[in-house]
Amino acid sequence: MDTLSNEELERFKVLLTERYNALLEELRYRERSSIMENQRETGAELSSYANHPAEAASDYANLTMNLNLAERDSKYLKQLEDALMRIEKGTFGVCVVCKNAIPMVRLEAVPTANKCIECKNEVKKREQEEAKHSLS
Questions:
Q1: Are 7 and 42 found together in one domain?
Q2: Could you give the C-alpha distances from 43 to 46, 51, 55, 58, 129, in angstroms and in order?
Q3: Could you report the per-residue pLDDT of 67-98, keeping only the tens digit for each?
Q4: Which residue among 81, 96, 116, 123 sits deepest, i.e. has the most Cβ atoms within 10 Å of its Cβ?
């Protein structure tokens, strides 16, 4: 099994840490913006606002979008944390399924990858089969 050099591991550690910190900053910014928006709405006249179906639909669409973004970002944050932990444990770049090295081209494309492409495709195929059977 080919292992990554210390220089490659350090490069990935820096990359993953930068992405982690950038995502945290983005989440903080969104939280501050949301708090400011709520304060602005609380101070506004709400009686006519609540009676407009178009406004309610727009608010619902925005809420749904924000919840989806938060869920996606939360998953990515966890993936970044896991990848950084694998670097610390010495298992970064090793497939969690077959224990073979994950090709560098895959790590370059998806630095949070914890499976080689073959195992990832096999897991995805199994999940699709299970989903298909659960719908039947």
A1: yes
A2: 8, 17, 17, 20, 52
A3: 788 889 999 999 999 999 999 999 999 999 99
A4: 116
Residue 80: count of CB within 10 angstroms of its CB:
22
**Cα–Cα distances in angstroms (integers) from residue 129 to residues 83, 114, 122, 123, 126, in the given order:** 28, 22, 11, 10, 5
SS3 state of residue 12: helix
* Tokens linked to 25: 């900053």
**Cα–Cα–Cα angle for 14, 78, 15, nearest 5°?**
15
The 10s digit of each residue's pLDDT in 90-101 is 999 999 999 999
Q: Which of 72, 90, 108 is the last residue of a domain?
A: 90
Domain assignment of residue 128, given as a range: 93-136
